[in-house]
Amino acid sequence: MLIKRIRFLRNALLARRQMVVDVLHPSRANVSKDEIRDRLATLYKTEKDAVSVFGFRTQFGGGKSTGFALIYDSVDDLKKFEPAYRLVRIGQATKVEKASRQQRKQRKNRDKKTRGTGKKVSKRNKE
Question: What domains are defined for the chain?
Fold first, then answer.
């Protein structure tokens, strides 16, 4: 596996280095993002938890994948600026479970049926 960076940018406002990455893997079908994070962490002398990779697409015919890599100055910066869903993917956060779509619709329709002062009481009970 060989990693080549294509476009490199130092983003001081977001405390990170960002780049488009080409991964050459001629003998393999694909390479895991975890493995790419490991390799980038060693190349840029940082910890693996401060590296985020995403958006990888394998070229038709295999052997080469292209995606994005963000290398933050620290793990705290990663947690501050990365979106929650990507933090969940790399194990830095837990997914927040919310009510299902059907439950939200049922609650909406139940609330439509209450009228007058009962509506205020039912909203207070929910909070």
Answer: 2-89 (3.30.70.3370)
Q: Kindly give the pairing relationship between strand 64-72 and strand 2-11.
A: unpaired
> Phi, psi (5° rounding) for residue 8?
-120, 135
Reported pTM: 0.76
Q: Residue 116 and residue 2: Cα distance in Å, rounded?
A: 68
Tokens of 33: 């993002």
Question: Tens of pLDDT along 108-127?
Answer: 898 888 777 666 666 656 65
Instruction: Give every residue of the chain whose pLDDT is below 70, as ranges.
Output: 117-127
The answer to whether the beta carbons of residues 74 and 56 sit under 8 Å apart is no
- Residues whose CB falls within 8 Å of the CB of residue 81, separated by 6 or more in sequence, listed in order: 14, 15, 16, 72
